[in-house]
Hints:
Keywords: Membrane, Transmembrane, Transmembrane helix. The protein is mainly alpha-helical.
Amino acid sequence: MEESTQDREILVQQENRPVSVQNSPKQVRLAISAFYFMQGVCFASWASRIPTFKAAMGLNDAELGSILFALPAGQIITMFFSAKLTTHFGSKKMLRATAPLYAIALTFLALATAGWQLAAFLVLFGITGNLCNIALNTQGVAGENYYGKPIMSSFHGAWSIGNLTGALIALGLVNLKLGMYTHFWIIALISLTNVAISSKKLLDHNPKPEVQVEKTKFFTMPQGVLVLLGIIAFCSMATEGTMFDWSAIYFEDVVKLPHNKAIIGYASFMFMMASGRFLGVYLIGRFGRKNLLQISGTIISVGMALAVIFPNIIIAILGFMLIGLGVSSIVPMVYSIAGNNKKVPAGKAITMVSSIGYFAFLFGPPLIGYVSQLSSLRYSFGIISVFGLLITFLVTKIKAIN
Length: 402
């Protein structure tokens, strides 16, 4: 299928270069979704095994929190040049290069036998993950505009489905007592197969751009609305980071589930996060982005409060499901709003916003560990409920959201 003039103009604005599209919008959407899905599977494969690492290395909450600092640190390292690379090489070429590296970096984690080794491998996992993430979200913004509907939320829904799938695979393999190294290589091989198949359907750059893009600095500090969007992303990603890294441990230490069943907390969160993202297209149309962001912030606070005040299995699962629903559409909406900013190229706008958000991953999970060591994991989770209220408040300050 040859793209229309309107499609070409939209994609020039988003990726700041002309593109050559030979696949239908549905084929492009499916291919991009497959990359989001596999990135989610890879991340969940690590996150679901965190209790195993904690037990095997004899780590307390503060020590684990310090080690968890390494993954977002790796992400932060690349934020200064990931957009530049994506803009220069194009998101398709970047995904072909970085998605395999991300999958292989996952396997290195299983080789760690001491905390410092795990931290070093997590830095590598974070570096490859962020390079892949910026390229993927840039491709996602272009794919959304090529498709002609607000489907960014569904792309992130595919990531969440992948995350849920990865958690369920881990749950099964933990009970089958399969080693982590074998587990992670199974996931890596599936990811490499996906790259070989799905990358052919991605949106491609024309090697001879017809439109000149105004040169910008190597790294530009976010300003104006991008700062507020970044803070909203920070609050949402701090909540997500806490759930990714600590939910299984919360169900093991606070809710008192056995080790081989503690992943149910993580899985319940991811189930609703995935469901909410696939409902995102309808919900945005029904409520509008501004109202939906405010509702989402409130739901996060209510869900976290329930899980903290009533830490029994039924209420905790309900609370985690509400948190998953609350965070589900926030980051996709923020990235979509940022990526459509007319003053900044899509890749750089997304990087500016996500850079602020990644500081949540940098400080959030370690903070939970330190507060937990001083008081309890239950009270440290209570801190996160404040972030939901902050999201609701900040959205009222952004007039550009419709």
